[in-house]
Design goal:
By secondary structure, the protein is an alpha+beta fold. 45% of the residues lie in helices and 19% in strands. The protein contains seven helices and seven strands. The strands form two sheets. Strands 6-3-5-4-7 form a five-stranded antiparallel β-sheet. A hairpin with a 5-residue loop joins strand 1 (86-87) and strand 2 (93-94). The longest helix is centred in the N-terminal third of the chain and has 24 residues, at 2-25.
Length: 202
């Protein structure tokens, strides 16, 4: 967390200097914008936006090192691609999010708790695990990820999260494995279990 804060502070300094230089070179470009909300997330968003804008304009090759996170963030903000193609002014078709965004790693971390054949068993399994480990899972969200295991078939992986860091996910993993339960740190991806009622059973 300290390393992240130092990185964000550095980004803020660089972005601030770049913004000042741009304003000085082009006074007519000054725009009166509302202040950023006084929250940590809002400040991180502003700093990140400035740094991404700087890289996109002056160091585009350096965006490759954060490409997976960019795709995941874009998907989280824009949502999944529409079911049908839309049209932009001029009659040109507008496609949804790139296919690569759908497989981008999650920005959050989670723990894989169990695998089930059916959605009903997944829901029951989550309720049982929450009852057994209330201090660890009561305030967590459950997600389901459909996977195909060679020679075994299709399964629904039950995951809990999110955790801000891999270290936090591993701490939860240690508690579960210490109690004799199967557990594995993973990216927190998949469909929220709360939406299970709208998904077809497997």
């Amino acid at each position: 967390m300290k390393t992240l804060r130092r990185l964000l502070a550095s980004m803020a300094l660089v972005s601030g200097l770049a913004a000042c230089a741009t304003t000085a070179d082009a006074p007519e470009a000054r725009v009166s914008l509302p202040p950023v909300a006084e929250t940590e997330n809002a400040r991180i968003a502003e700093i990140t936006a400035r740094e991404l804008d700087r890289r996109a304009r002056h160091e585009p090759d350096n965006l490759a090192e954060v490409a997976p996170q960019l795709r995941a963030l874009a998907l989280a903000l824009a949502g999944p691609p529409p079911q049908a193609a839309q049209t932009v002014p001029g009659g040109q078709p507008m496609s949804g999010a790139p296919e690569a965004m759908l497989t981008a790693p999650s920005l959050w971390h989670g723990i894989h708790l169990a695998s089930y054949r059916t959605m009903a068993n997944s829901v029951a399994g989550w309720a049982e695990l929450q009852a057994r480990f209330p201090g660890l899972l009561a305030d967590r969200e459950a997600r389901i990820e459909a996977v195909t295991i060679p020679e075994r078939g299709e399964f629904l992986r039950l995951q809990a999260g999110p955790y801000d860091t891999l270290a936090a996910g591993r701490a939860a993993w240690a508690v579960m494995t210490g109690a004799g339960e199967y557990c594995l740190p993973v990216d927190f991806s998949g469909r929220p279990l709360a939406d299970a009622g709208t998904a077809p059973s497997r």
